[in-house]
Amino acid sequence: QVEFVESGGGLVQPGGSLRLSCAARGVAFSIYRMGWYRQAPGKQRELVALWTTGANPKYAESVEGRFTISRVNDDNTVHLQMDNLQPEDTALYSCYALNSWGQGTQVTVSS
Questions:
Q1: Closest by alpha carbon to 52, among 18, 93, 103, 97?
Q2: Are 60 and 53 in contact (CB under 8 A)?
Q3: pLDDT tens-digit profile of 59-93?
Q4: In angstroms, how far is the first alpha carbon of the chain from the final one?
Q5: Does residue 38 contact residue 48 with C-beta atoms inside 8 Å?
Q6: Are the beta carbons of 84 and 94 closer than 8 angstroms?
Q7: Which is nearest to 57 in space by CA: 88, 39, 79?
Q8: Are 49 and 36 in contact (CB under 8 A)?
Q9: CA 1/CA 28 separation, integer angstroms
Q10: Is-contact 50 35, C-beta < 8 A?
């Protein structure tokens, strides 16, 4: 069973940046697809960014050009660089892999 170690959330002012990291542990092979979802209060969980081996990353339209997902070699770790954060980006961000989600890390954008 995959275990997620997520980090990097916090409180930031509008226009600021945060970098989220997620390590998927307990898996003996390189995971083909990993990514980040988010859920704001009262809203459904939505895809933020998805990394698929051998393909271009996929982003939600609302974060395109501001967020960048990356992965180093075959390590089951993904990072999400979030720039120019806005209040509407406030949500619980959860790592995704192998049809499972992590507990999440809170991102709050407020002045």
A1: 97
A2: no
A3: 999 999 999 999 977 789 999 999 999 999 999 99
A4: 39
A5: yes
A6: no
A7: 79
A8: yes
A9: 11
A10: yes
Q: What is the CA radius of gyration of the chain?
A: 13
CA nearest to 36, candidates 1, 72, 69 = 69
Residue whose entry in the numeric block shows the structure tokens 């089951």: 76
> What local confidence, expressed as pLDDT, does residue 33 receive?
96
Q: Which of 25, 1, 4, 10 is nearest to 106 (CA)?
A: 10
Report the alpha-carbon distance of residue 85 to residue 26 in Å, rounded. Answer: 32
Cβ-based neighbours of 56, under 8 Å, separated by 6 or more: none
Other CB atoms within 10 A of residue 15 CB: 11
For residue 14, the tally of other CB atoms under 10 A from its CB is 13
